[in-house]
Write a structure and sequence with these properties.
By secondary structure, the chain is an alpha+beta fold. Helix content is 47%, strand content 30%. Strands 1, 2, 3, 4, 5 and 6 form a 6-stranded antiparallel beta sheet that branches.
């Protein structure tokens, strides 16, 4: 993929819509195109957040590792960013990202990513909106799971009587 193609990929992502062309081309230049085969780990829960990944082609599962084993909580596809939360929070990664099929992504190192966030407030607002949507979706999933648990408890209680 050429630098111009990587620039075009970045340009299609809402996060980067307000970034000046010259700055976006510089970000494309500083980024690295990477590929992952099906099931390969892009980044692991608990690792330091050193980069974000813009999915160019394919999909990635977002997996939470817990005592009961791994749970896939989301699947992201083309033109979506993964791994940005660890960078923004300056914290270890809160989930594992695993390729679902063949995955091609643009690896954006922490410093250039953060420089863009600092220089372009509209980008920061777009990121906040995307993260808010993700939190809202997770809350909906959590509420649905709670409802299922409550229904199961009610059935078990009724069956015990």
């Amino acid at each position: 993929m050429s630098l111009q193609q990587e620039y075009e990929v970045l340009r299609r992502v809402p996060f980067f819509a307000e970034v000046e062309s010259s700055k976006l081309k510089l970000l494309a230049f500083m980024s690295e195109r990477v590929g992952f085969d099906d099931g390969k780990i892009v980044c692991r829960q608990g690792d330091p957040g050193d980069a974000a990944y813009l999915i160019i082609d394919g999909a990635a599962d977002i997996v939470l590792e817990g005592p009961a084993g791994p749970v896939t909580v989301a699947t992201l596809g083309a033109n979506e960013i993964v791994g940005e939360m660890a960078i923004l929070c300056n914290a270890p990664r809160n989930a594992t990202v695993r390729a679902k099929g063949r995955l091609v992504a643009l690896r954006i190192a922490k410093e250039p990513f953060m420089r863009m966030v600092r220089e372009f407030p509209n980008m920061a607002v777009s990121i906040m909106q995307e993260l808010a949507h993700r939190v809202q979706a997770m809350n909906s999933q959590l509420q649905a799971a709670r409802n299922e648990v409550n229904q199961l408890r009610a059935r078990m209680s009724a069956a015990a009587e």
